Amino acid sequence: MKNVVAVLIAAIGICFGVAGFALATPDRGRYIPPDDTIVEVTGDKRTGFTIEYYDGSSISPPTDSEARAECSEYDTEAARVRCRTEVRVWYRDLGELKRALNYAQSPRARDAKAGGAMT
Length: 119
Known about the structure:
This protein is of the alpha+beta class. The chain has helices spanning 2-24, 64-71, 77-104, 107-113; strands at 38-44, 48-53, 58-59. It contains 4 helices and 3 strands, in the order H-E-E-E-H-H-H. The radius of gyration is 26 Å and the shape is elongated.
């Protein structure tokens, strides 16, 4: 009889412990991305991009023309070419990231993830 009581007390303790842990960690099963995760990109290279992060902060890099103007201030031709190349790659990548985020947030992407037919 003592063993049965001990087992019941242990089982009740475990149940309350598990329930307490579950209540104390409500986001346990939900993924929370790092604060610096990019959640939205708006704009274009002509008018400028705005990059928004999960933590609510945002940055707005210079427009394409502003960035190119800054590149022309470098002393050597090689530095100016490198700068212009970096600007082209930066804006190309921002455009691709914007399209990827738009797709990921679209109903079509959710259907594909759920196993539905893509149209």
